[in-house]
Design goal:
Blueprint lengths: L4 H5 L1 E4 L6 H31 L6 H29 L4 E3 H34 L4 H4 L2 H26 L9 E2 L6 H5 L6 H35 L4 H29 L8 H25 L2 H19 L1
Parallel strand pairs: 1-3
Antiparallel strand pairs: 1-2
Helix pairs in contact: 2-3, 2-10, 2-11, 3-4, 3-10, 4-6, 4-8, 4-9, 6-8, 8-9, 9-10
Length: about 325
């Protein structure tokens, strides 16, 4: 497939959207409400970490960076979903589809790598507490976040460039809400086995490798926690990891189900639901998980909201 003017302007049609007007309106308001909570929750976390001096630590810096990536991640697809719900023609150009996939997969991959970085941070904090301030400097933290984003976008660009270099069939209907790898790969007319293996390799690098790093970090953490003599000390160590571990299981469960499997096991209706979980559900739950399980974050967000209310009253 060439990327000439005709190819770039070629359009795909999304088939997953509701057709009844009443269902479209209710879907629009439901997605808008969830998206508002996602943006509000993650922005509150970023603002609280920026304004509260006691939260200027590596753990909270990574949490703020994770919230920033979540904002970018949802902004790539959710506004487009909202626009398509209200439009009669739910289409996207080939160039728009490729661009959406690059940033959606890129920020999703960056999310995975950043979760691995956060696991490493907890490993250093628990297994090497005396050396923690020396190892986890702010310079290293910034570099780790930048590297996570760069690697995520680089892998995504390579994958999307490969997918869109393949020939597509005449039927250009995507049984999905947005451009994602499994439904777009269904449109490829070339021999699928080699191409599926290439996509699986890319997905393995972006998902399984960070997960292996996380599992390794937690193996050392568990070994260190078991050596702590007091129950209170063990509980305190585990409590600093529980929120992160919950997010990891939620994020990697959905990603592994969607991307670490052959194209033949793609089921449109089931996968559409799963995609909504990791596109809307995970970014919505992450702020709740980190704030409800963290008294410092709850206090910081409460102070941010109080200051905002007082400034408006004045």
């Amino acid at each position: 497939m060439t990327w000439g003017n005709r190819s770039v302007l070629m359009e795909f049609v999304f088939l997953a959207y509701p057709s009844h007007p009443e269902l479209c309106v209710s879907s629009f308001f439901a997605v808008s409400l969830v998206y508002t909570f996602i943006i509000s929750g993650n922005v509150l976390i970023v603002v609280a970490i920026q304004t509260e001096a006691r939260l200027h630590t590596p753990m909270y810096y990574f949490l703020g960076s994770l919230s920033g990536i979540e904002i970018c991640y949802t902004a790539v697809v959710v506004p487009h979903i909202l626009a398509n719900i209200l439009q009669s023609e739910k289409t996207i150009t080939l160039l728009g589809c490729a661009t959406q996939m690059i940033f959606f997969i890129g920020f999703g991959s960056a999310d995975c790598f950043l979760l691995a970085v956060m696991a490493y941070d907890r490993y250093v904090a628990i297994c090497h507490p005396l050396q923690y301030p020396i190892i986890m400097t702010m310079t290293l933290c910034v570099r780790l976040v930048i590297v996570s984003v760069v690697i995520g976008l680089f892998l995504s660009f390579q994958l999307v460039a490969f997918i869109f270099s393949l020939p597509f069939c005449r039927a250009r209907s995507i049984e999905h809400f947005f451009c994602d790898v499994p439904p777009v790969m269904r449109l490829v007319c070339a021999s699928s086995h080699i191409h599926e293996q290439s996509v699986l390799v890319a997905a393995t690098v972006a998902i399984a490798v960070p997960f292996l790093l996380i599992a390794t970090s937690y193996a050392f953490i568990v070994a260190a926690v078991l050596k702590i003599p007091s129950a209170a000390g063990r509980h305190r160590a585990v409590s600093t990891c529980s929120s992160h571990l919950t997010v990891v299981l939620l994020q990697y469960g959905c990603c592994a189900f969607m991307y670490l499997r052959p194209n033949s096991s793609y089921y449109p209706k089931q996968d559409q639901f799963i995609s909504l979980v990791y596109t809307l559900g995970t970014p919505l739950l992450n702020p709740l998980i980190y704030t409800l399980r963290n008294s410092e974050m709850k206090g910081a967000i409460g102070r941010v909201l109080t200051r905002n209310c007082l400034s408006q009253n004045n």
